[in-house]
Structure formats: structure tokens, C-alpha cells
Amino acid sequence: MPRVLVYGGNGALGNAVVSHFKSKGWDTISVDFSQSSNAAHSVVIEGSSKEDVHKVIEGLKAKNIAALDALVCVAGGWQGGSIHEDDIFTKTERMWQFNVQSSIASSHVASKLLNEGGLLVLTGANAAITPTPSMISYGITKAATHHLIKSLAHEGGLPKKASVLGILPITLDTPSNRAAMPGANFDEWTPLDFVGTQVYEWAAHPNARPASGSLIVFKTANKITETFPAQ
User: Fold this and answer.
1) Half-sphere exposure of 198 toward its Cβ, with a 13 Å CA cutoff?
2) Which of these is catalytic: 138, 200, 202, 218?
3) Do the strands 114-123 and 215-221 form a parallel or antiparallel pair, or are they unpaired?
4) Using CA atoms, how far apart are residues 33 and 204, in angstroms rounded to an integer?
5) What CATH number does the domain located at 3-229 have?
6) Is the pLDDT assigned to residue 98 strictly greater than 80?
7) Residue 94 half-sphere exposure, CB side, CA atoms within 13 Å?
8) Which InterPro entries match (predicted)?
């Protein structure tokens, strides 16, 4: 049975990814701050990257899980704010932990446990391709994630023939986004199921994957979602 680990697997997007892989007969593992009732296995972490990585690896070992076919990191967060704000350092540290540290931690796990030819997916952001003056901490950390993705595509990082891809959503249709922006046009938001389906297709069909290191934008208009490489 193929196996996928979802970092951030108990959040809205993580649950959607877990559910889709589960429906296709994959063994599923959630890594998150809380126990998942959806995934077959669950590892609960506390937010300290070095200790969390050790806990994930040891937790999988205790479950007799020695290898992964795919690892998907959808952990992260958003924070607005400009450079002149007094709490810019606090915001940047928070975004660094949520966006960069989670990507590094999941990539480290992938470097240890991903099978040859496996897939690592990290979550970037379409907004970080261009300047983000009103959400500077978010943009900086997502741009750093994009750099990590491109770096891991080179030899010396992941196992042989493994691929790394970045998903770059614009706006995801999550309950928290709907609550925060009730007047928005939800037809322009990407459904979580679409993301889960696309990631599964890449994991299950290596020949259908974009080139390793690609950053793939998810854009939705009038309820129709398309994916394409970032420019």
C-alpha cells in the first residue's frame, strides 16, 4: 500500500489532502498540533522544529513506518503588516516558524524517509512572486519557501529520482477565509478538493508531474480552476 504523510494534516487543506489519498487506498499519516481522526496514523507535534522532526521520525518508527511515497506540507499561516509597524519582528518570527520552519522540517523528514522516485510538495504563495508591501513577513517567508523548493530539486537533497513541487494558491476556499472575508466572491477561490486531487495525481503518476523544482500556481475564476507554472 502506498503511503503519504501530510504535514499540517489536521487543518482544512490538510484534511482535504488526507481524505483524497485515503479514498484512493493510500495509507495516510497526519502530522499536526492536534490528533487527526481522519488519517490512519497521527503524530502530534508542539511547534519546536528540531524536536518535532525527531518526534515525527521516532513516532513513525514506533508505528513500523520506514518509508514514504509522498510527503505533502500544507502547514503555514498568513500575517498582514508593513515594514514600519512596531511588531514587524514578532510577525516575521511567527511567519518564519509557520511557513519556513515547517517547510524545512517536512523536507528534512522527506530526505530521510522518502522512497526513490517519491514526491515532496511544499506550499508557497502566488503573492510572493511579486512585492508584498502590505504583508511583508508573509511574502518574505513564502519567497524563502520558493527558494527551498528550487534548491531541493538539485542533487544532494532528496532521494534518487524524487521530485519536489511547490503549490502556489491565490486564495483557498477554507472556513477561516470565508469567516474573515464574508463579502468576497467565493467563485474566485480554489476548492480544497481540487488541491487534494491535483497533488494525488502527481504522487500517483510520476510521469504526469511537472519538472522537479516547479512552482505551480492554482488560479480559480468563475468556479473553474487551472494550474500553470509561475512566471
Assistant:
1) 22
2) 138
3) unpaired
4) 27
5) 3.40.50.720
6) yes
7) 14
8) NAD(P)-bd_dom_sf (IPR036291), Sc_DH/Rdtase_CS (IPR020904), SDR_fam (IPR002347)
